Amino acid sequence: MATQWTRRQFLATLAAAGLSVRMSALMAAPGAEAITRPIPSSGEPLPVIGMGTWRTFNVGGDQHLVSERTQVLKTFFEWGGTLVDSSPMYGSADDVMGEALDALNAHERVFGANKIWTRDGGATREQDRASRRKWGIDRFDLQQVHNLLAWEPHLETLKQMKADGDIRYLGITTSHGRRHRDFARIMEQEPLDFVQLTYNVLDREAEQRLLPLARERGIAVIANRPFQGGSLFRRYQSEPLPGWAAEAGCGNWAEFFLKFIVSHPAVTCAIPATTKVKHMEENMGAQYGNLPDEQQRRQMADYVAGL
Amino acid sequence: MTDVFWFSYSLSDFLMFGPEVFLRLFVRINQDFWPWQGGAVAMMVLVAGLLVRGDKPAKRAVLLLLAAAWIWSGAGFLMEYYGPINIPATWFGWAFILQAALLTVAALVWPWDGSPEKPARQWHAGTAWLAMTALLSLLAVAQSGNWQAIALFGIAPDVTIAASVPCLLLLPRRVRWLFLLLPLLWSVFSAATLWTLGTRLMFVLPLFTLVLTVMSFWFSPRPVQNRD
């Protein structure tokens, strides 16, 4: 996958896939296109809103919930999303993703991002193969070393896999602001395509070193925990959006939080996770319209800090 | 990785599912095994009746029924339903089966020397156990608002353990500790999980079991001889 989509191509693909189109934002703004960012190492455009699966897709053999999650994924694709991120760490999430992709026949649509999460430095290919089998795909677009676990041997193998064409991009991940010093050192020394780290309107440590370094080194950035695991909604949802939010392109809190993240020039995409179709629609709204400028971003951070 | 690194983790970092998925485990197992819940209820009533009787054959039968309950909740709920979303549940499933084997051995070989041949009827013990077990079964219903989530003895691990601990008082203290280790471990694991999930009503269950288990390490009921 990996082509730059115009609105016409996008709609044609949807129609061909037989998917119903419920893109109010798109329809409300004729000519609007999904906001994309180029992956620095290739120039391939990536929609700025991806999808995480942490906690949300680990539903075991519960067919009722598998069906609900399939609808969430369907909505994600309908709104122009492509990048889905998972990990062997997330219980049955890989299996459930495979079932959902089967149900939607969407293996060709997804930009598959997964992780290597094992202390066994020699098990990189084996774990990649196991995850691919669960997803039902031939290769992952992106494979990442999860939380720097045994990162040296895994990264060496991933480099070889990329050279062999077994993956298209490689990267490393961290979350919750952990091990940023080690993370920066690896970013400085290794030929990474992607890094994944925690960045949101409250957790902004990455702005100090990692985000500038990513720009300098030409590394794409995936922002995880964009809602701080849901706690941003619990804290702020009852508060009113500021009057100037619409000027910054934000019609609800989901758009407010997500647009703050993806408007940072170093960020390539954010990966919110949800179990509800309605929430997915709200999240995907952040992929359309205008993004806040630097002054508005400061205003957004100040507003949230002041609540 | 330094020790400080590990301290930066919280319990929620290790939990890969939400309360909706967890509570639906009870609904699913009840839907899949309907109408065999009648068997679980009959087993509860039978255990209560045997506790009332209190003689040696009754004690052996109670331990055998407990063993069956542990096998069923371990191999069924923990390994088939809970394990796929939470790997440690599968490990606990195997431990439950091991505990069932221990209970079976105890039921078959323990002599209960010195226990009265014709003990007085322990009506209060049987009734209290039945009432406690029935009430604890309803916590999952209260938490989820769904009757199909009822957590029956012999199906749901928390209720099975909570109901088993008082029955383990049938064993003398010098061997009882061996049977209390798993309830202790499970209660801590379950309490941590339910607290992190925010299922506060259900959190009461492992907390209650934890208190019962700790008390059971020291407490020993006095056998009562029938005056007839």
TrEMBL record, chain B:
InterPro entries linked: DUF6064
Keyword list, A-Z: Membrane, Transmembrane, Transmembrane helix
Parts of the chain that traverse the membrane: 33-52, 61-79, 91-111, 123-143, 149-171, 178-195, 201-219
Protein's name in the database: MFS transporter permease
Lineage start: Bacteria, Pseudomonadati, Pseudomonadota, Gammaproteobacteria, Pseudomonadales
